[in-house]
Structures are given as C-alpha cells and as structure tokens.
Amino acid sequence: MTPRDASDANDNRWSDLDRPPLNGTALRRALVREGGLWGDVRVTPRTGSTNSDLVALATDEKADEGVVLVAEEQNAGRGRLDRQWTAPARSGLFFSVLLRPTGVPVERWGWLPLLTGVAVATALSKVAGVDTALKWPNDLLVTVGGEERKTGGILAERAGNDAVVVGIGINVTLREDELPVPGAGSLALAGATTTDRDTVLRAVLRSLEQWYEKWRAAGGDPAASGLQETYAAGCATLGRVVRAELPGGTSITGEAVAVDGDGRLVLATEEGVQQPVGAGDIVHLRPA
Fold it and tell me: Which residue among 212, 233, 245, 250 is the one 20 to 30 A from 5 at the CA level?
C-alpha cells in the first residue's frame, strides 16, 4: 500500500503547536529537481517502519532511486540488532532513502552507513549549529550538559540485487522527560539554533546527495572521494578504549586506532594485535 502524504491526512496533526507537521509539498518543491538525486519525497502520518516500507517497494520494483519516505510517527522503527526506535509524533525526523549505487562494486556498499553519518553530521553542524560526532558504525552523538548522548542512528538494508535502503532517525525536539533510554539526547537539548524539521530535513538530504554523488563518481573509493578521511576526523570512537560485542556473544577490547578501507573499525588489543571489526556493538569505555 502506498503511504499517504501527511498533508492530505485528517489526523489532528496540529495537536502540539510546538511540533508542526512537515510540509510535503514544500519539501518536494525544494528537493526534487531535474538531474538531481531526489525524485520524490513522500510524507506519511504514521507507519511501522519507513525502512520496511521502502525495502518492500524497491523489491517489488515500485520505487526508483531517489525516493524519500518520511514518517511523522513510527511505531515499529528499527535500529541495528533489531532494537526498537520510538518517539512521540513529530518529535523527530524518521525517514528512509532508496539508493541504487550503479558503478560501485558491491564490496564498497558497506560505506553507505558511514557516508550517511558524515552527511548528517555535516548538515546538523551547518543548519542547527550542533557539533555532531559519529560513533562507529552508525550512531549520531551530541553533547548535552557536558555529557555525550545519542541523538540519532542509521540503518542500511539491501533491497533486491541492486538497491540499498538507508534509514535515518534523528531526535529533534524530544524533552528530557520524553527520552526513551538513559544516554539519549535531542537537537533541542543540545542547544540547536533551529528545530524546524523542514529546514533540518532539507539540509540533511542536500548534504547526503553531495556526499553520495562524490562517492559514486569515485567508484565508491573511500579515499579518493575524501570519505574515509572525513569520517575518521569526525569519529568519536577513534582514540578510545572500546569493547566490541560481536555476533555470537564474543567480545574484543582494545583501542580504536583506525577505520580501514573496507569501513571496518581497527582495534589494537593488549596482545599487540590489530583486529578489524566489521560488525558489532561498540561500547566506549574511556574518553579519547
């Protein structure tokens, strides 16, 4: 079923005047242009998961590259390791984009979550004045009261043989009493200069388009595109002692010393071994 545009829904979208609805028509007018990446921006009042919806559309060949699906509310949003991501309606940005990175070897597609993190952090710094750090592989961190907190996350999923759906969640106006877990944050709590979601979403999508086109023009080469260097410069995980909790229940502890050419986090262990980690949950044990 095709998601409805929130602008067409009669669902009491103005119940919280501090959290106005997104303007789907204005977003399409600002972002969809001939020759550009974004071909359509669809705003739906609520859904289970924008990633699941867009993966289904892409798999059924019902969506082209550049479709953006935004939900005002998600009730089954997912993060890595199938963690749930929920928030009050219109308190954040919950959206997914469909990419078909033709010309880029599949082995380099693993850089897409890291690329998205760089794009989002760059946009938030510029448009909202919030310094946003990256926790490998997919968390967005801001500082609230001197404490590092997670304000967003990224989830990339394959869709068929030639597509990737990248989902992005950003807490925008969540208040302290609304935070879902300890350690969560929001742009508002981090002192953002704007919490206008239309403005933030436009900036994020424009930044993502710029980084994606640069990366794709370089054949997905993270060094030639400048992605590897930029990611490392903004990665709060590097230089820290961390514990990598790996699939299967094992773990590795060491200092995070690099992000390699495959996007893996390299840990220097006490045994003098440099161990690359391609998947896992990272726990920061000590500040850099």
Answer: 212
